Amino acid sequence: MPKKVIILNSEQIEQRIIRIAYQILEDSIEEKELVFAGIADRGYIFAERIINELKKISKQKISLIKISLDKDSTSLNANTDKDVSDAKDKVVILVDDVLNSGRTLAYGLSVFLNVPLKKMRVVVLIDRSHHDYPVYSDFAGLKLSTVLKEHVSVIFSDKPGEDAAYLS
User: Fold this and answer.
1) Could you read off the pLDDT of 37-56 as tens digits, one per residue?
2) Which stretches make up the Phosphoribosyltransferase domain (predicted)?
3) Is the pTM of this model over 0.90?
4) Which helix (H) or strand (E) holds 59?
5) Helix, strand, coil proportions of the chain in percent (round to 5)?
6) How far apart are CA 13 and CA 71, in angstroms?
């Protein structure tokens, strides 16, 4: 079994969430409303945590859409829990836990292709440097160079202090 190495502990993840919240605020200070789109499951949880921090420092209206993808499908199969047309002419912030090849985020972006947006931003906790698709993060908690056979996993726990990101 491959050895797991912790790359971010709970406190470090929390620090990065706070920093990303401030970066998003700076990037969208003029906006009255932000639409977060979290890719289920961990991207959605990560988006919720960023929103909780943003609410402490901003008066902006914030909504959250959950994007559910069939990642094993050879074609795009995505569902959302809210109508994506609600994002029309707004800033959309697409959130996932890890950016590896960019395929998952490309699928996430695609649900908004027929919606005119003000701008789109991409947020990830960990950005690896193996992009097969032209998808890049605007905000990342950690940029990490790894070899292809290594795997990054993120755990968001309901219990305080038990979040972690591992490299195996």
Assistant:
1) 999 999 999 999 999 999 99
2) 7-139
3) yes
4) none
5) 25, 35, 40
6) 25
